[in-house]
Write a structure and sequence with these properties.
Helix 1 packs antiparallel against helix 2. The chain is an all-alpha fold. The longest helix is centred in the first third of the chain and has 40 residues.
């Protein structure tokens, strides 16, 4: 059996892991979009590289989300 302190630490750890995925997803999208925006400014290709960067950042964010889900499924097995 777990003490209430151990249970609370476990719950906090899970919450932090899920919050980290959200932050990582947001950061991936923003880095991709702003990186594309910067490249658009350099190469005068507005808005195409920003769109590509946004899409690539979104893919990277979802990839990290799916990786976390796989880890959670392995823990349950």
């Amino acid at each position: 059996l777990m003490s209430p302190d151990q249970k609370q630490k476990g719950t906090l750890g899970e919450w932090m892991r899920y919050a980290n995925v959200g932050i990582e997803m947001m950061a991936s999208v923003l880095i991709g979009a702003f990186g594309g925006y910067g490249l658009d400014y350099l190469f005068h290709t507005k808005p195409w590289l920003m769109i590509v960067g946004f899409i690539l950042g979104s893919v990277a964010g979802f990839r990290s989300l799916f990786r976390l889900l796989e880890q959670e499924n392995k823990k349950k097995d």
